[in-house]
Design goal:
The chain is of the alpha+beta class and 130 residues long. It is built from two helices and eight strands, in the order ααββββββββ.
Length: 130
């Protein structure tokens, strides 16, 4: 009886673990679809709106929660190492050679800003003013 009870407990334990492991993840191979450049950072401002930045000024955007991705023009060929958006419209990307770019229209256009720091690895803002 003890062996049967132990087997049932183990069975249900592994069943529960397998039921909840990695649910909701979908494999995407963006490099083959949109770019061959390295992708370095991702930021979602909401459930649907997200951006990825990478080498050679690569910026990808989704408005479908990652189901579809589109290339955005960054206006730079420098590597972008980090991206951060405070909402669906206002965000920054930063990278090598003092490069910081800002958008206020969801990435449709980007404006250059200078940092004075040679390489920026990560960028974060608490709101659109800071």
């Amino acid at each position: 009886m003890k062996k049967l009870l132990l087997l049932l407990i183990l069975h249900f334990t592994f069943y529960i673990i397998n039921c909840y492991a990695q649910q909701g993840w979908v494999s995407q191979n963006l490099n083959q679809i949109l770019t061959t450049n390295n992708l370095n950072s991702i930021c979602y401002s909401s459930n649907n709106s997200g951006w990825i930045v990478g080498d050679a000024g690569t910026i990808l955007n989704t408005n479908s929660g990652g189901l579809q991705w589109f290339i955005q023009s960054s206006g730079t060929d420098r590597n972008l190492n980090s991206v951060f958006f405070v909402n669906d419209y206002i965000g920054w990307a930063a990278g090598d050679n003092q490069k910081i770019i800002k958008t206020t229209d969801g990435g449709q256009s980007w404006v250059n800003q200078s940092s004075g720091t040679f390489r920026i690895r990560a960028i974060y803002f608490v709101d659109e003013k800071f």
